[in-house]
Design a protein that fits this description.
alpha+beta, four-stranded antiparallel β-sheet, Jelly Rolls, 8 strands, globular
């Protein structure tokens, strides 16, 4: 895949749709393509976060540890971004991400990602929207689980 192809691929991701072609080419140039086999972890809960990942092909599951077991929160497919919370907030990974099918991802380092946000206010605004949406969904899910726990269903 050429640099232009990877830049076009990044443009299809809602988070990067507002970035300039030049910024996307730079991001593609500084990124690394990785392959994962079924069941292979991209990263684990508690790992340090130095990169975000764009799913190119395949499906990945996001897992949270609950009472010593991994519980699937969501499954994501192509054009999804994972791992950005760690690099934006400077915290350890908040979940484990594992391949459900053979998958390819594009690893985007912390510095190029943050530079893109700095240089593109439109993209920074989109990141805020995506994170706010995730926070809203997570809050709703936690509220549901708490209600089920109170009723003795969990």
């Amino acid at each position: 895949m050429t640099l232009n192809d990877e830049a076009l691929l990044l443009k299809r991701i809602p988070l990067f749709s507002g970035a300039t072609p030049g910024a996307l080419k730079l991001l593609a140039f500084t990124s690394e393509r990785l392959s994962l086999g079924v069941g292979e972890a991209l990263f684990h809960h508690g790992d340090s976060g130095e990169a975000a990942y764009v799913i190119l092909t395949g499906r990945l599951e996001i897992l949270a540890e609950r009472t010593g077991k991994d519980v699937r929160l969501v499954e994501l497919g192509p054009n999804s971004l994972v791992g950005e919370i760690s690099i934006l907030c400077g915290v350890a990974r908040t979940a484990t991400v594992r391949a459900v099918t053979p998958s390819e991802v594009l690893r985007i380092g912390k510095d190029p990602f943050l530079k893109l946000l700095h240089d593109s206010p439109e993209m920074a605004e989109q990141v805020i929207r995506v994170l706010a949406d995730r926070l809203s969904k997570t809050t709703a899910e936690l509220t549901r689980l708490k209600a089920e726990q109170a009723l003795g269903r969990v």
